[in-house]
Design a protein that fits this description.
The protein is an alpha+beta fold and 336 residues long. It has twelve helices and ten strands. It has a four-stranded antiparallel β-sheet, with no helix packed on it. A two-stranded antiparallel ribbon has the order 1-2. Helix 1 (10-18) packs across helix 10 and helix 3 (61-73) runs parallel beside helix 12.
């Protein structure tokens, strides 16, 4: 997704540098509900659409899923219902229990591409499962089950002796390999799915996704790329279809690893970040895992929040004006 990611300030960098060994509770002075009210006011339209302010005001299944998760975390049932209703009305596909990935209000046909984004589908199914259980809403539980079944039947392929999670139903399997996005491995969602449907349904996929993250170590810092092509049982390469960068997608590998109690999967990422802070050097927004080239600007407030949670350091004290950065900040603060 081509989003204009915001820089975080040098003051944030300094705070992270000085306190990289501080406890995880540091920097969390504002109440979570206060942050949710700010997020809701900034990015949630009255009709339930989460607006991507850094990408021309579009919406997408990822954002709707993030909005639902965050509304659940804030116990905001009205916002949750509004976001879910808009998602069903605007993005739900009629031929399967998945969602078209993009909505552009500037277009005559706002949903011009019917392809899904599997991470968005997973977030929506996860949010519905959590909300259905807590709020005793059977139709949320039923819809979550439908989406999970569609993800399992249409977005998982068996190749090279592994089960691989496709980023979407179209465009990711070629004779040369299967392209995956490791930041789509949303561990707490997958664990919830396994608890509901059984390890026999999700267990092998989860194990194979974990193995892929362990295999995806490139460059001097052993970092995963945003996009990865699987060419054999234990053979992976940075996907040729995208720049070979540890960047705006892959930074979420650390976030989801922490949220899913798999911090070991982010160990090399943490080592790289801690080295930069110890050296009092900015953490780049991206680094080419092949050449070592770095972005000439640092990570956004959202990236800084993930750094803070992983290293136990203070996080940015204010919510970003950018949808994606703010969403990462909110998720880094959430305890689901």
């Amino acid at each position: 997704m081509a989003v204009d990611r915001r820089w975080f300030t040098l003051g944030t960098l300094a705070a992270l540098t000085v306190a990289c060994g501080a406890g995880e509770s540091n920097g969390r002075g504002a109440k979570t509900d206060d942050w949710w009210q700010r997020y809701r006011a900034a990015f949630l339209s009255p009709d339930g659409r989460i607006i991507d302010t850094g990408n021309g005001g579009i919406s997408h299944s990822e954002g709707q899923g993030y909005g639902m998760i965050l509304a659940f975390a804030a116990s905001d049932r009205d916002a949750f219902a509004s976001i879910y209703h808009w998602t069903e009305q605007s993005l739900s596909r009629g031929d399967m229990a998945l969602f078209s990935w993009r909505y552009d209000p500037r277009e005559i046909n706002p949903v011009g591409d019917p392809n899904n984004a599997t991470d968005g589908d997973m977030l929506i199914a996860w949010a519905l499962a959590l909300a259905g259980k807590r709020w005793k809403m059977q139709h949320y539980l039923d819809r979550s089950a439908q989406i999970r079944n569609a993800i399992r039947s249409r977005c998982v392929t068996s190749q090279y002796g592994r089960q691989l999670l496709l980023p979407g139903i179209q465009g990711f399997v070629t004779p040369a390999g299967v392209t995956v996005n490791p930041s789509y491995f949303i561990w707490p969602a997958l664990d919830t799915f396994a608890a509901l449907d059984g390890q026999h349904v999700w267990g092998q996929l989860i194990a194979d996704c974990e193995d892929l993250v362990r295999l995806a170590k490139f460059g001097a810092h052993r970092l995963p790329p945003d996009w990865l092509t699987v060419t054999g049982t234990s053979q992976v390469i940075p996907a040729a279809s995208h720049p070979p960068r540890f960047g705006f997608d892959a930074i979420r590998i650390a976030l989801y690893s922490l949220m899913g109690m798999r911090a070991n999967l982010a160990a090399d990422i943490g080592t790289f970040w801690r080295q930069r802070l110890t050296q009092q050097r900015p953490i780049p927004a991206w680094i080419d895992v092949v050449t070592g080239e770095e972005a000439p600007y640092p990570v956004s407030e959202g990236g800084a929040a993930i750094v803070g949670r992983l290293l136990g350091a203070p996080e940015p004290a204010t919510l970003s004006a950018d949808y994606f950065a703010a969403s990462l900040q909110m998720l880094a603060r959430a305890r689901l």
